[in-house]
From TrEMBL:
Top-level taxonomic group: Eukaryota
Keywords annotated in UniProt: Lyase, Metal-binding, Zinc
UniProt xrefs under PANTHER family: DUF636 DOMAIN PROTEIN (AFU_ORTHOLOGUE AFUA_1G03180), GFA DOMAIN-CONTAINING PROTEIN
Molecular-function GO terms, alphabetical: carbon-sulfur lyase activity; metal ion binding
Lineage: Eukaryota, Fungi, Dikarya, Basidiomycota, Agaricomycotina
Protein name (Swiss-Prot/TrEMBL): CENP-V/GFA domain-containing protein
Length: 137
């Protein structure tokens, strides 16, 4: 799969098709993306190639671990994060990839900060907090 930021200065190539999206409602994802949830592709770090020079910002996440988030310093697109619960994975912003190429959501996390009027996606495991606490809805 090939994706890019809005200005196309940064390109992302994923060599494995992810099986499902993660939907994350955490406060950090809200502020990082400017949207009320992040739709993320989980990708092993050795399966993604980044071309260009992303900017990065690290903080302690809603889940209590240090997460570094990368973005395009030119156009501002949110790109991916690394260093959360599964440090060998990139969590890549799904909207960087072309329409109709994405798998359906499989996990929804940090529901404790989801807007009350949002609807749950069918077939997703859910968690009020982090991915380690997933349960059937
Ligand atoms: Zn850009
Ligand atoms: Zn999040």
């Amino acid at each position: 799969m090939d994706g890019s930021c809005l200005c196309r200065g940064i390109k992302l190539r994923i060599d494995a098709k992810p099986e499902a999206l993660h939907v994350c409602h955490c406060i950090d994802c809200r502020q990082f993306t400017g949207a009320i949830a992040a739709f993320l592709l989980p990708v092993p770090r050795d399966k993604m190639t980044v071309t260009g020079y992303p900017s990065g910002y690290a903080n302690t996440s809603d889940g209590g671990v240090t997460v570094k988030r990368f973005f395009c310093g030119n156009c501002g697109s949110s790109l991916y994060d690394v260093g959360g619960q599964e440090p060998n994975m990139y969590y890549v912003q799904a909207g960087l990839f072309p329409p109709r190429t994405l798998p359906a959501p499989g996990k929804e996390i940090f529901l404790r900060s989801a807007e009350a009027w949002t609807i749950r996606y069918p077939g997703c495991k859910v968690s009020q907090t982090e991915v380690k606490q997933l349960v059937d809805p």
